[in-house]
UniProtKB/TrEMBL annotation, chain A:
This is ABC transporter ATP-binding protein. PANTHER family: IRON TRANSPORT SYSTEM ATP-BINDING PROTEIN HI_0361-RELATED, METAL TRANSPORT SYSTEM ATP-BINDING PROTEIN TM_0124-RELATED. Residues 11-244 form the ABC transporter domain. Keywords: ATP-binding, Nucleotide-binding, Transport. Belongs to the ABC transporter superfamily. SMART domains: AAA. GO terms for molecular function: ATP binding; ATP hydrolysis activity. Gene3D superfamilies: P-loop containing nucleotide triphosphate hydrolases.
From TrEMBL, chain B:
This is ABC transporter permease. GO terms for cellular component: ATP-binding cassette (ABC) transporter complex. InterPro entries: ABC_BtuC-like (IPR037294), ABC_TroCD (IPR001626). Its main location: membrane. One of its GO terms (biological process) is response to zinc ion.
Length: 277, 291
């Protein structure tokens, strides 16, 4: 790692806050994410996890504080940020093969006819092989299983060799086997390339052995630190302002008594991300 | 002669075919341009789930064309103006799919009502009126032809420039936006291109049946391939085959062109569906976990 920048933070938040009108999602957030770090973002629905991802992508302004991504304010269209969106964002009418989706990650944003096609095609084949998706490269995405599609999604996000990988609930509705496959792909990548990983999830257990730090968002506040510091009854009770029990059974964690999770209304898709009625 | 024979004579009649063919030379050329435009635009109509918008735009295009007929000005220009107003309104007011459909549902009957009003006021040839709704083949004269070909060229150039980011934004809007694709701008730009394509199609197949050129060929192609090259190619081939076949069959008959075009187009779709089903079964058999 000869690049001197690799030792400085790739994502830096200072006194950052995000709110929708009166409702504060989080505030006074100070956070540095370093190259190769695996940060899990946890919290109940509506705590601002997806909004954080949107802010990092330059799609949302902070309501206070500063955010720098790779040394500058975030803006859309950076090839240094790979993004795995929530499932279901792919159009149901998308007529694409797995390889076309990966290819969009490389040159989908350019206007005019494609240039350098053979080099790009080779690159797409490499990526598909690296995420174990070569066998279904030519299958229409609509026919892929959820786990297969997530592999292709990760290939798409890594297609430009990004320095940051943002994953928004990439494990949702995957079975254990595919959860493990996806987390292993992400983990291998940050170890081999020093890619910083911001991994939004409502379920910590699949990534518990891999994460360096946890950012837990709830009730307008947050806790950040190693999993052992944040995922304790004491820390979460303080965060939620009500007694919460964190139970460890072997290497699994269960959080009991989270008030939001109990009274959680069904998700309203027509509301902006992170807002509850 | 039985009644059935008489009807058959009206639908298929190939007497004096050679002389008739010369009359529709312009239409055959325009048909190729329309097939190209309809086949390519259709790919995005399917991907962006816009068939209802196509129908809505074509009704306002019809209103524009009938206003032009009444005023005695260029009909193609009139239908383009109507199309663009509808496409612009849908593009501006209906950014989300749910809003979009109600905006279209509101615009469409208004457009149709205006069109009926203009036609009722028009005192000219009845065939001209009917043609705007159900299509006509001998109506393409030379000034109209220049409009048709010029507008087709505009649509094709616009599509060539924005094809890649438009496909990205249509299939995968979240990631496209994160990669800096101007998703909203492209959405509006495509509505304008769609408006032009619909105005062109109205000239040949009529306002009621534009979907057969702008939706059916691409939907048929999508049943049998997901390749980004093969799909638009097949869509164009299907659209051109439908329209040219329709013109050639309609030539000797006394019925409008549209039933021929729609029947060919629909038949192609059915065949593609059958072929696609056996393909999907093979994918399913070869792979352990189909959805």
């Amino acid at each position: 790692m000869s690049d001197p920048r690799t030792d400085t933070a790739v994502i830096s938040l200072r006194a950052a806050a995000l709110s929708y009108g009166e409702r504060v999602l989080w505030r006074d957030l100070d956070l540095d994410v370093r190259p190769g770090e695996f940060l899990a973002v946890l919290g109940p629905n509506g705590s601002g996890k997806t909004s954080l991802v949107r802010a990092l992508l330059g799609g949302r302004q902070l309501s206070a504080g500063t955010l720098t991504v790779l040394g500058r304010p975030p803006r859309g269209g950076s090839r240094h940020i790979g993004y795995v969106p929530q499932q279901g964002t792919l159009s149901a009418h998308a007529m694409l093969r797995a390889r076309d989706l990966v290819r969009f990650g490389i040159d989908g944003h350019g206007f005019g006819p494609r240039l350098r096609t053979s080099a790009v095609r080779r690159r797409v084949d490499e990526i598909l092989a690296s995420v174990g998706a070569a066998a279904y490269a030519d299958v229409p995405v609509g026919l892929l299983s959820g786990g297969e599609r997530q592999r292709v999604r990760i290939g798409q996000a890594l297609a430009t060799d990004p320095r940051i990988l943002l994953c928004d609930e990439p494990l949702l509705s995957l079975d254990l086997h595919h959860q493990r496959a996806v987390t292993e792909l992400v983990d291998a990548r940050r170890r081999s390339h020093g890619t910083a990983v911001v991994f939004v999830t409502h379920e910590i257990n699949p990534v518990l052995g891999l994460v360096d730090r946890v950012l837990y968002l709830a009730r307008g506040g947050f806790r950040v630190g190693a999993p052992d510091e944040v995922l304790t009854s004491e820390a979460l009770s303080q965060l939620y302002g009500t007694p919460v029990d964190v139970i460890r059974v072997r290497d699994r964690i269960t959080v009991v008594g989270v008030p939001d999770e109990v009274a959680q209304p069904p998700h309203h898709p027509e509301l902006p991300h992170g807002v509850r009625p | 002669m039985t009644i059935a024979d008489g009807i058959w004579q009206q639908i298929f009649n190939f007497d004096n075919y050679g002389e008739l063919l010369a009359l529709v030379r312009n239409s055959l050329i325009a048909g190729v341009a329309l097939g190209l435009v309809g086949g390519l635009v259709g790919v995005f109509v399917i991907m962006r789930d816009l068939p209802f918008a196509v129908h809505g735009i074509s009704e306002l295009s019809f209103a524009g064309a009938s206003a032009a007929l009444l005023l005695g000005v260029n009909i193609v220009a009139g239908s383009i103006v109507g199309s663009l107003i509808a496409a612009g309104a849908i593009g501006l007011l209906g950014t989300r799919a749910r809003d979009r459909n109600s905006v279209i549902g509101i615009i469409m009957p208004f457009g149709l009502g205006l069109g009926v009003l203009f036609l009722a006021l028009y005192k000219g040839r009845a065939a001209n009126k009917f043609g705007l709704l159900t299509g006509q083949i001998v109506a393409v004269d030379t000034p109209q032809m220049s409009w048709l070909l010029g507008t087709s060229a505009v649509v094709l150039v616009a599509l060539a420039v924005m094809w890649r980011p438009l496909a990205f934004a249509s299939a995968d809007p979240d990631v496209a936006e994160a990669r800096g694709v101007p998703v909203r701008g492209l959405s509006f730009a495509f509505m304008i291109v769609l408006g032009l394509a619909v105005a062109l199609s109205v000239q040949i197949v009529g306002a009621l049946l534009v979907l057969t050129l702008v939706v059916t060929p691409a939907a048929a192609a999508a049943r049998i391939t997901a390749s980004p090259v093969l799909l638009p190619t097949l869509s164009v081939v299907f659209a051109v085959a439908s329209i040219e076949g329709g013109i050639l069959l309609a030539l000797g008959s006394s019925v409008p062109i549209s039933p021929y075009v729609t029947t060919i187009s629909f038949t192609i779709y059915l065949v593609c569906r059958l072929v696609g089903r056996s393909r999907a079964r093979r994918w399913g058999a070869a792979r352990a976990a189909p959805v």
